[in-house]
Design a protein that fits this description.
Layout lengths: L6 H12 L4 E3 L1 H15 L2 H6 L1 H8 L18 E3 L6 H16 L5 H12 L15 H10 L3 E3 L7 E3 L5 H4 L10 H14 L4 E5 L3 H4 L8 E6 L6 E10 L2 E7 L5 E3 L4 H6 L4 E9 L5
Helix pairs in contact: 1-6, 4-5, 5-6
């Protein structure tokens, strides 16, 4: 299937869209987008069967890069297809999946998908509007109809915990040097305090593996004070077991060598997982 728009026009549309949301995108990312769409269009059967897995595996080997969203002095919509952290990997896979579902090909639509997924209620409105805490990311994207938290269905248990790591570690976040951003994030954390977490304990996961599907989003819950989740990726079935397909801080997008259960046992602070099923996965 041919591109509807050649790259120069795609860049023009991106500039037009930037009037509504400030976008940071290198020319190489526009080229990478076009190449990725061509690649995905050659995988019709795999995409129809499981779009999350088709897109997710297509990024295998891409480098892990930290803090790709911390650019400039004000919050902007960053499009970076040259490297991911664990969250931007999940977001980009979903954004491409939505393009395929909606039979869209334009860079403009991809950027809009990223904004919808990444920001509270789908609207970029400054740094605090980004869904920094992954449990809020799940809840807000569930409200948008993009995912469903199935942790409770798997046997997860309620877990009360203060989520305030950003507010108590202001010095780690350059954008929080701005007093308004800081006060707004404290308000976000105040709202998060009203919510409880539902976590499937680490020692319960193996018994529930049969109910976890390839393409489910796996968020790693933590005992670290003030944090809800330290890592995320996708479940993937491999040799009859559930593994993790993720942007690994070890260097790249990869599949864990060991099953998810054994992988988690190596993480001292891990207390279990939260599981969200993308709406892109067929019932």
């Amino acid at each position: 299937m041919n591109r509807i728009f050649p790259i120069p026009l795609a860049l023009f549309l991106l500039t037009t869209y930037a009037l509504q949301a400030q976008i940071v995108c290198a020319p190489n990312d526009s080229i990478a987008f076009s190449i990725k769409m061509d690649q995905l269009e050659q995988m019709d059967n795999a995409v129809l069967e499981n779009p999350i897995m088709a897109v997710g595996k297509s990024f295998l080997g891409m480098p892990y890069v930290e803090k790709t969203l911390e650019i400039g002095e004000t919050e902007s919509l960053v499009v970076n297809l040259r490297g991911f952290d664990c969250t931007t990997y999940v977001e980009n896979v979903l954004a491409f999946g939505l393009l395929l579902q909606n039979k869209e090909q334009q860079f403009e639509n991809f950027a809009k998908n990223l904004e919808t997924i990444r920001y509270r209620n789908g609207k970029l409105d400054g740094y605090p509007s980004r869904l920094h805490y992954f449990t809020e990311w799940i809840r807000n994207n569930e409200q948008k109809g993009l995912v469903k938290d199935i942790t409770n269905e798997l046997g997860g248990k309620e877990h009360k915990k203060a989520i305030n790591f950003m507010g108590t570690h202001r010095e780690l976040y350059p954008f929080l040097a701005d007093d308004q951003n800081y006060q707004d994030m404290l308000q976000v954390e105040k709202e998060l305090a009203k919510e409880s977490l539902c976590i499937l304990a680490q020692d319960e996961i193996e018994n529930k593996e049969d109910n976890i599907r390839s393409g489910d989003i796996i968020a790693l819950a933590t005992s670290i004070k003030g944090l809800d989740v330290t890592h995320t990726g996708f479940a993937i079935e491999h040799n009859g077991r559930i593994h993790l397909l993720h942007a690994s801080s070890s260097g790249s997008v990869r599949i864990t060598q060991e099953p998810l259960v054994d992988y988690l046992k190596k993480i001292k602070s891990n207390i279990g997982i939260i599981v969200a099923r993308p709406s892109l996965l067929s019932p």
